[in-house]
Amino acid sequence: MPPGGAARWRHLRLSLGRGAQAGTAAARGPGVNGTPTPTPGLDWNAIAGELEAEGHAVLEGLLAPTHRQALIAAIDDRHRDGPDIARPSWSLRRTVATPGRGELFAFDPEPPDFLRIWRDDFHRHLAPLATRWRQLLRPADTDRPAAGPAIPARPHDASARLDRLRAGDAIGLHRHADDADAAAFRLVLLLSEPGSDFTGGELVCVEQRPRMQSRPAVVPLRSGDAALICTTRPIRGARGPYPGRLRQAISRVHGGTRIGLALSLDGAP
């Protein structure tokens, strides 16, 4: 657990190796409907350490180019007039289109195989950390069965959304976990390339701590990168651990089009 007095955030980029991306992409499967190897090459000990220290970790090059390109193409197709554009095992439907806040797309009936495999794999590695955090924040619950762990014991339905932001669009600060005292995780991925596809549109995280100033941070992402974010984590204080609650936002897009993807690892929509 980090001390409560820490004032500056740092960013540890946990890389799969961009020079080896072609091989990594092949290992994950030939296409968006294939069955990829679950999250290859991740150092879960380093990820857990970064989550405990900072509340988020950048996973560099997590999304294979074939998957990224297929998702972008699906959004482009869906924008045309007419019925949803079907894929062999999934389709996209636009659920929200709000001026200034962009568009949200949902998978129907379920996300591609690789996202559901990711969710199972992330759950398997993060569940022990989430359970330990929950016990620190709720010591009275330590000796009794949990009403519902921070990550569901068996996640079947991956809550995944794509978002498309154009010039002038932004997503304000928000949280995705209803339970403020239990650890919850989200995977936030960037599909577009900063600088060439869009400008602005940075991922911003703000951690709120009781009786202390909030800590804002811009989390740098490139195309294919992901930020693993915990919405609540224990922070060591003089009277014991207290919850640090994290909200996220996407700053205003100045030009171009920014496409991102968010995968809930805690069952939240």
* Fraction in beta strands: 25-35%
Helicity level, as a percent range?
10-25%
Q: Overall 3D geometry?
A: globular
Q: Gyration radius, to the nearest Å?
A: 18 Å
User: At the fourth CATH level, what is the homologous superfamily?
Assistant: q2cbj1_9rhob like domain
Average pLDDT metric: 77
CATH level-3 fold name: Jelly Rolls
* N to C succession of SSEs: EHHEHEEHEEEEEEEEEE
Q: Using the 3D structure, state the CATH architecture.
A: Sandwich
Count up the domains: 1
**What top-tier CATH class fits best?**
Mainly Beta
Q: What separation lies between the terminal Cα atoms?
A: 28 Å
Characterize the structure shown:
The chain has 269 residues and is an alpha+beta fold. It has a single domain (13-33, 40-140, 152-264), classed as q2cbj1_9rhob like domain (Jelly Rolls, Sandwich), CATH 2.60.120. 22% of the residues lie in helices and 32% in strands. The chain contains 4 helices and 14 strands. The chain has helices at residues 21-28, 44-54, 65-78, 113-137, and strands spanning 13-15, 56-60, 91-98, 102-108, 159-166, 171-174, 185-190, 198-200, 203-208, 215-219, 226-230, 232-235, 242-250, 253-264. Strands 1, 2, 3, 4, 5, 7, 8, 11 and 14 form a 9-stranded mixed sheet that branches. Strands 6, 9, 10, 12 and 13 form a 5-stranded antiparallel sheet that branches. Strand 12 (232-235) and strand 13 form a beta hairpin.
Record keyword descriptors for this entry:
269 residues, 9-stranded mixed sheet, alpha+beta, 5-stranded antiparallel sheet, disordered N terminus, Jelly Rolls, 22% helix, globular
